[in-house]
């Protein structure tokens, strides 16, 4: 088994790329990964910020409503 692979090596297209191009590909990959990570981080941060804002708004509204009802009734 595997006798036909002895002495020969399958070359991939990526094996023929020059090292400088490999370096650029890796840098672009890391750059895109970092950008997506920051994008998702900011998205979650803004989502939590809006969630807490709405929560505090509703809490203050309910407190003012109860205070108003308690004072006027």
Characterise the protein shown here.
The chain has 1 helix and no strands. It has 73 residues and is mostly helical. The mean pLDDT is 87.
What secondary-structure arrangement, pairings included, does this model have?
Elements: H1 19-72
Low-confidence stretches: none
Q: How confident overall, as mean pLDDT?
A: 87
Shape: rod-shaped
Q: What structural class should be given to the helix and strand makeup?
A: mainly alpha
Biggest sheet, open or closed, and with what strands and sense? none
Helix residue percentage: over 70%
Q: H/E series, N to C?
A: H
Q: How far is the first residue's CA from the last residue's CA?
A: 92 Å
> What's the total number of strands?
0
Number of helical stretches of at least 4 residues: 1
Percent of sequence in beta strands? under 5%
Rg over CA atoms: 30 Å
Tag the structure with descriptive keywords.
73 residues; mainly alpha; 1 helix; 74% helix; 0% strand
In short:
With 73 residues, the chain is an all-alpha fold. The protein has one helix at 19-72.
């Amino acid at each position: 088994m595997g006798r036909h692979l002895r002495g020969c090596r399958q070359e991939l297209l990526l094996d023929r790329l020059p090292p400088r191009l490999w370096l650029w590909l890796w840098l672009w990959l890391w750059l895109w990964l970092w950008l997506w990570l920051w994008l998702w981080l900011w998205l979650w941060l803004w989502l939590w910020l809006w969630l807490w804002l709405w929560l505090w708004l509703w809490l203050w509204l309910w407190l003012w409503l109860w205070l108003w009802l308690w004072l006027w009734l």
